[in-house]
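To illustrate this point, we now present one chain and its tokenised fold:
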Amino acid sequence: MLLLTINYVPGKEIEALGIVKGNVVQSKHIGRDIMAGLKNVVGGEIESYTQMLIEAREIATQRMVKEAEAMGADAVIRIEYATSAIMDGTAEMVAYGTAVKYK
């Protein structure tokens, strides 16, 4: 499955199949919260949260691809990601794009 952030597939004529998306809600681990609180005092990257978002992005992408494969897509174009806080201690990651088939 080809995944692109551009609006086309270079060198291919395509047919749009529709929007596909994948999402996941991740929660913080209490150990992450404690370390984040300490980092907040001294500054710097909170690596455990960065890793949590990386994992969430991967899961959301996999779910989007699974939806596109079920539609018979060859690629997903115009992929975007969005994140939001659902409630204290959780974050939602959404991946979405347009499933396309080569003509």
Notes: The CA atoms of residues 39 and 46 lie 7 Å apart.
